[in-house]
Each structure stands twice: as structure tokens, then as C-alpha cells.
């Protein structure tokens, strides 16, 4: 059996992932949204459920639901799924069918609980909160208002909200919850020695910057005392920005979390200010994974938790090698699974050896994946990013420019689909 196809048992919960793979969290933007009526935000839809039915068929070891804000104003984007105790609808009933669809063929399912903090766009809120008042610079057409530092009572409230999110996921049938502490979102804004300029118990030393994360873990366990429920974190192996979380700090945080009983630590990297979903070093290109060197530096220090590393993996050989050589226990994948939702199953069944190439320019690859998610959710053919013509059309749609059409050029399947932004 190839390393990728080998089941992984989590030590604390005893849960078994059927393969050594993880579908990393990806924002779906398929839930309800109303600008003015917060009650109407974040409710799962049939399209959101259908998406997870498709991924559920793909022999994925662990399926992580895309980021779920625990505050109706702390959104990563409009149409996020949300779990917030103030919403009048029943979140357990709303998430249950989605989780059941994802679990139908044996995958474990965990929900990623998040708060955007200073990375909530101005379109969603003019009054964001953060660890401090350092404003996030504009990115890809989005602008961000200057944040206000959270007060300690507000931190207490958010800690409880994270715990409530875990409880809802548990009652809705999920196998676990993942705190999103990567990519510059709120928990990452506390961990960063640059963004976090607090002088109270939540700022300064690494121990203080870690305090909110520690409290979230404790609260999730308090609200879900069942040891069989997986607690997980997605964390930056480094922020890649001056003064941001370093590898050494990330390693120390992972050691603390392992000691606290987390079952799964997923490593990533970068923030909105310093995107890291590309190769920072030529030396790691052959091994594909962007963060393999970081994982190698962290893994020997982790005693019980399983490690997943996400970003850059495209061929079965690189994935098998990373597991065999002890870089990681689990391979995380994101963009390849929006192009080919059953890629892992096809690799394990020997039908393919690598993800299809993408001709999408890297800065637009997230937008293109969101479009593919839209295709999947509606049962449409998935836009082929290996087709130059389709790529031109998507680039045009994402950048607001009409594609150049040569005389007699055929209409592509993407153009025929309804999936325009
Ligand atoms: C469309 C899209 C949405 C994403 N949304 C999230 C998210 O909600 N939470 C998260 O932790 N990472 C998110 N990411 C990052 C991915 O989980 C992953 O870390 C990154 O894409 C690198 O993996 P890859 O090279 O396999 O795509 C997203 C990525 C994409 C492409």
C-alpha cells in the first residue's frame, strides 16, 4: 500500500483517517448573506451541501470545511458559513446534512473555525477588531479599515464563541474542530510579534501572544468534553514578514499545543501581506511542498499530535516521499482538489500520478479555485485551468476585462456555464 493510501490513527481521539490525506480548508462562499440583516448571514445552502457530497466521494482522509467565522462580522468574505450563537436559525440542523454528505464514504470531517480580525474587508465591516490597531494594507481590490484592539472582555466573549462553534460542530456530527491560526487572521494577529503590539497579558512574550490560542483550546475542550472529538490547529510555520511569527516561535507553539492534547497540527505559511503559496526557495521545488523544510524542523519535537503539511504538493511521488521520509504524517491539498475533486481517489486507484497542470497565473489561482468550487456546487463541468482559452476567460472575469475573442473561436464550456463572478 502506498504511504498516501495508508490509514492514519489519531492518538488522543482514536479516530482513523482512511488515507494519509487532508482536504485543506477552502472558503466556499456558498452560504446566505445579507449586508444589513446579520440574522440572514452564514446559513448553509443546498449548493454548499452538494459540494461536500462530491468531495466525500474522493477517498480523502480528513475533509476540513472551509473557514467558518465564529462572529457574524468577523467574515473572511461575504457568503461564508457562520456559527454564531446570536443567529436565530438552528446551526446544528443546518450543518448536519453538510457534514453527513462529506462523511458518507468514511472521510473524517472537521470544521475550521475562524475570525478575520483586521483582514475583514471594508465591504463587510468598517469597524474591524484585532490584537492591536495596525491596519492591513489593501490586497487584490480589497481594502481594510483601521482595526480597534480587542478589550479583554471582548477576548473572553470570542473565546466562548470558539468553544460554541466546536460544540455545534460536534452536535452536527463532525469529528473535530480546527482553529484557524494561520494566514494572518485574528489568532495569527495575536501570535505575530509585529501585528500584536499589546502590553497586557495577551501581548509581548510568545507565551502572552499564545494566551488566546491556549484559552480557545481549553474552551473547546470544556464545551466538548468528549475525548473522541479531534482538536486541531492550522498554523503558520512562519509568517514570512519582518517581525512576524518565526519558525522557532511556531515550533514552540506547536510543542505547547501537542502537550495540550491536540490531535492534528496543520502547517502552512504567509499572511495577506506576505503570500506564501509559491516556492520561496528553489531548493524545495523538487519536493513540491512549500513548507517541507519547516515541517522537518518542527516534526521531531512533536510527540503525539499528527502533523499535516499543506501547500504545493502536486504529484503522488512527492506526496509518498514526504510521508516516507518522515517530513509529515499527512499531505494537505487545496487547489488541486477544486480542479479534480477525486484526485486522491484516482491517485490511490492508480488512475493518475499527478494533478493536472494549471495555466492560471498564480495571483489569480485562488479566485479561479473559487469559481471551480461554484461549478462543483451546482453539478456543472469544472473549468479546466489547463485550457488556455478557459484561463483567458477566467482571467478576464476576475480582472473585469473582456477576453479577446478571435474570429470563429468556439465558446468554451466555462463561458457556457453560469459560473461568472
Ligand atoms: C479558493 C481557496 C480558498 C482558501 N480558503 C482557505 C480557508 O478558508 N482557510 C484556510 O486555512 N486556508 C484557505 N486557503 C489556503 C489553502 O487551504 C492552502 O493552504 C493553500 O491553497 C496551499 O495549498 P495548495 O497548494 O494545495 O493549494 C484557501 C485556498 C484557496 C485556493
Structural key phrases:
32% helix, 13 helices, 421 residues, alpha/beta, binds flavin mononucleotide, single chain, 8-stranded parallel β-barrel, disordered C terminus, two-stranded antiparallel ribbon, globular
Write up what this structure looks like.
It is a single chain. The protein is α/β, with parallel strands linked by helices and 421 residues long. It has 2 domains: 3-355, Alpha-Beta Barrel (TIM Barrel), CATH 3.20.20.70; 357-421, no CATH class. It is built from 13 helices and 12 strands. It has helices at 46-56, 91-103, 152-171, 186-191, 206-223, 247-259, 292-298, 316-324, 336-339, 343-348, 365-377, 388-399, 413-416; strands at residues 8-9, 16-17, 21-23, 62-69, 108-114, 129-130, 148-149, 176-181, 230-236, 264-268, 306-310, 330-333. The strands form 3 sheets. An 8-stranded parallel barrel has the order 3-4-5-8-9-10-11-12, surrounded by 7 helices. Strand 3 (21-23), helix 1 (46-56) and strand 4 form a beta-alpha-beta unit. Helix 1 (46-56) packs parallel to helix 2 (91-103), helix 1 packs across helix 11 and helix 3 packs parallel to helix 5 (206-223). The longest helix has 20 residues, at 152-171. It is globular, with a radius of gyration of 20 Å. 50% of the residues are buried. Residues 408-421 have low confidence and may be disordered. The structure holds flavin mononucleotide.
The unique ligands bound to this protein are:
flavin mononucleotide
Helicity, as a percent range: 25-40%
Order of helices and strands: EEEHEHEEEHEHHEHEHEHEHHHHH
> Could you give the count of β-strands?
12
On the 0 to 100 scale, the average pLDDT is 93
Q: Provide the spatial order of strands within the biggest beta sheet.
A: 3-4-5-8-9-10-11-12
Q: Any idea of the CATH topology of the largest domain? A: TIM Barrel
CATH class of the largest domain: Alpha Beta
Coarse shape: globular
Question: What is the CATH superfamily of the largest domain?
Answer: Aldolase class I
Overall CATH architecture of the largest domain: Alpha-Beta Barrel
Strand content: 5-15%
Count of discrete structural domains: 2
Unreliable spans are: 408-421
Radius of gyration: 20 Å
Alpha-carbon distance between the termini?
42 Å
Structural class: alpha/beta
Amino acid at each position: 500500500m502506498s504511504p498516501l493510501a495508508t490509514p492514519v490513527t489519531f492518538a488522543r481521539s482514536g479516530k482513523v483517517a482512511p488515507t494519509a490525506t487532508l482536504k485543506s480548508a477552502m472558503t466556499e462562499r456558498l452560504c446566505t448573506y445579507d449586508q444589513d440583516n446579520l440574522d440572514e448571514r452564514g446559513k448553509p445552502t443546498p449548493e454548499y451541501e452538494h459540494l461536500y457530497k462530491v468531495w466525500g466521494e474522493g477517498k480523502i482522509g480528513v475533509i476540513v470545511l472551509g473557514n467558518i467565522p465564529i462572529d457574524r462580522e468577523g467574515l473572511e468574505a461575504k457568503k461564508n458559513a457562520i456559527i454564531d450563537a446570536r443567529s436565530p436559525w438552528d446551526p446544528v440542523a443546518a450543518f448536519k446534512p453538510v457534514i453527513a454528505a462529506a462523511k458518507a464514504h468514511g472521510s473524517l470531517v472537521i470544521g475550521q473555525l475562524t475570525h478575520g480580525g483586521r483582514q475583514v474587508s471594508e465591504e463587510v465591516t468598517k469597524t474591524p477588531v484585532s490584537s492591536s490597531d495596525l491596519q492591513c494594507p489593501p490586497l487584490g481590490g480589497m481594502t481594510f479599515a483601521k482595526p480597534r484592539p480587542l478589550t479583554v472582555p471582548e477576548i473572553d466573549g470570542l473565546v466562548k464563541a470558539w468553544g460554541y462553534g466546536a460544540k455545534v460542530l460536534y452536535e452536527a456530527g463532525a469529528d473535530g474542530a480546527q482553529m484557524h491560526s494561520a494566514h494572518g487572521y485574528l489568532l495569527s494577529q495575536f501570535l505575530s510579534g509585529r501585528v500584536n503590539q499589546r502590553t497586557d497579558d495577551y501581548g509581548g512574550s510568545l507565551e502572552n501572544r499564545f494566551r488566546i490560542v491556549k484559552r480557545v483550546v481549553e474552551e473547546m475542550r470544556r464545551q466538548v468534553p468528549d475525548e473522541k472529538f479531534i482538536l486541531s490547529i492550522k498554523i503558520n510555520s512562519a509568517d514570512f514578514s519582518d517581525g512576524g511569527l518565526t519558525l522557532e516561535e511556531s515550533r514552540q507553539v506547536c510543542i505547547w499545543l501537542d502537550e495540550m492534547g491536540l490531535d492534528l497540527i496543520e502547517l502552512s505559511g504567509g499572511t495577506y501581506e506576505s503570500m506564501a503559496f509559491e516556492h520561496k526557495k528553489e531548493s524545495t521545488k523538487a519536493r513540491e511542498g512549500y513548507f517541507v523544510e519547516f515541517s522537518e524542523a518542527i516534526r521531531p519535537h512533536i510527540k503525539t499530535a499528527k502533523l499535516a503539511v499543506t501547500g504545493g504538493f502536486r504529484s503522488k511521488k512527492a506526496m509518498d516521499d514526504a510521508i516516507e521520509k518522515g517530513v509529515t504524517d499527512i499531505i494537505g491539498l487545496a487547489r488541486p482538489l477544486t480542479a479534480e475533486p477525486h484526485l486522491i481517489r484516482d491517485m490511490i486507484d492508480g488512475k493518475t500520478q499527478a494533478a493536472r497542470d494549471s495555466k492560471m497565473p498564480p495571483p489569480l489561482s485562488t479566485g479561479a479555485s473559487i469559481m471551480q468550487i461554484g461549478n462543483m456546487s451546482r453539478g456543472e463541468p469544472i473549468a479546466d485551468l489547463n485550457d488556455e482559452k478557459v484561463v483567458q476567460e477566467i482571467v478576464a472575469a476576475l480582472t473585469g476585462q473582456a477576453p479577446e475573442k478571435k474570429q470563429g473561436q468556439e465558446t468554451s464550456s466555462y463561458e457556457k456555464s453560469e459560473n461568472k463572478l
